[in-house]
Specification:
alpha+beta, 5-stranded antiparallel sheet, 10 strands
């Protein structure tokens, strides 16, 4: 996209921070996002920004929790802007529109580096171990940030919940209702899934502090930079799916389809920076509940996003299998849990 052919909405976002098309030397779309659109903007003075916008309201391809999703990302970067030792983008501008107001665009600084999954195969064992420790330390620092209420900042389900159990119940109910709306075939009937999750709800009462949770810390949202042999964590990005809740929920995407307890380097960094990495029966049960929630999102979003037949088959088979395993783990959790 050349500067003279800017989308008017992009031009308006840049104009809000006193940047004209003539000030831009590069404006290019970025791939990798599955919901919002991303542009890299490079200015003549060397500044490098990311412009992020949500899909059109007319697209009709949203799950209920995705309402005003960019508000979460803006809230995340605002909450951590003074937190040392965590490489996150800095907000340059937050655009709001409509009534009631929604966040219709973000301008933020670009973190250096490449997505971890693109560099992973070339990492040395030492680089990988060091980067996982650095990630553990960063996540522990992020988990020192607390909010005033549980759930998503945009409150897509109505007024803020009084406690974490209520908030998480609203989150899971919403995605299960989306499954019904979009006609998604889950590996277990919707009401059975709802009952299994509800039956373990008492364990959520142990969570009394609303902690900052990114909830999408897979390798695509983690950047690495540096010379070969000395690469390390350089960016924690795409925080749009954040919520205020249980820090244990973070471990799901950090070890997607795997077991965070096997990640000794991450856990060492997490503990060294003050994070609590003690895996009691209660913590393991909560972790399985949060796995259920993420797997449900992954299964349900496949329909409104119109996955290809190959993508849909893989999602049903692979994600559906993991959802079944987590539901079984929740249903068979020990009664004491401590």
């Amino acid at each position: 996209m050349s500067p003279e052919n800017f989308d008017p909405a992009v031009a308006a976002l840049l104009s809000a921070v006193a940047v004209a098309p003539a000030d831009v030397v590069e404006c290019a779309p970025l791939s990798g996002g599955t919901y919002n659109s991303l542009l890299r903007v490079v200015l003549r003075d060397g500044r490098r920004w990311i412009v992020k916008r949500p899909p059109s309201p007319r697209s009709g391809s949203t799950l209920r929790y995705e309402h005003d999703l960019l508000r979460g990302e803006a809230s995340y970067y605002t909450a951590v802007r003074d937190l040392p030792g965590v490489p996150v983008p800095r907000l340059v501008h937050v655009e709001t529109s409509a009534e009631p107001p929604v966040v219709s665009g973000l301008v933020m600084t670009e973190c250096p580096g490449v997505p971890w999954h693109e560099a992973d195969a070339s990492l040395t064992p030492g680089e990988r171990a060091r980067s996982r420790r650095e990630l553990g330390e960063a996540v522990a620092r992020l988990h020192t940030v607390t909010g005033s209420e549980f759930g998503y900042p945009a409150r897509p389900f109505g007024p803020a919940a009084a406690d974490w159990r209520s908030a998480f119940t609203a989150m899971t109910d919403a995605v299960l209702n989306d499954a019904v709306v979009y006609g998604v075939e889950l590996p277990r009937p919707v009401e059975e899934v709802r009952e299994v999750i509800a039956a373990a709800g008492d364990v959520l009462d142990e969570v009394t502090r609303p902690v900052l949770v990114h909830f999408d810390l897979w390798q695509g949202n983690l950047l690495l930079a540096g010379a070969e042999g000395a690469r390390g964590l350089s960016g924690v990005i795409d925080a749009e799916r954040m919520f205020w809740g249980d820090p244990v929920a973070e471990f799901v995407s950090l070890s997607l389809f795997d077991d965070i307890e096997k990640d000794a380097d991450f856990l060492a960094g997490y503990a060294a920076a003050g994070g609590d990495a003690t895996f009691t029966d209660s913590v393991r049960l909560r972790l399985e509940l949060y796995r259920c929630y993420l797997y449900l999102i992954m299964l349900v979003e496949a329909v409104p996003r119109r996955y290809s037949s190959e993508q849909s088959a893989w999602t049903r088979r692979h994600v559906g299998g993991h959802l079944t395993a987590s539901l079984d783990a929740v249903a068979s959790a020990p009664a004491g849990r401590r």
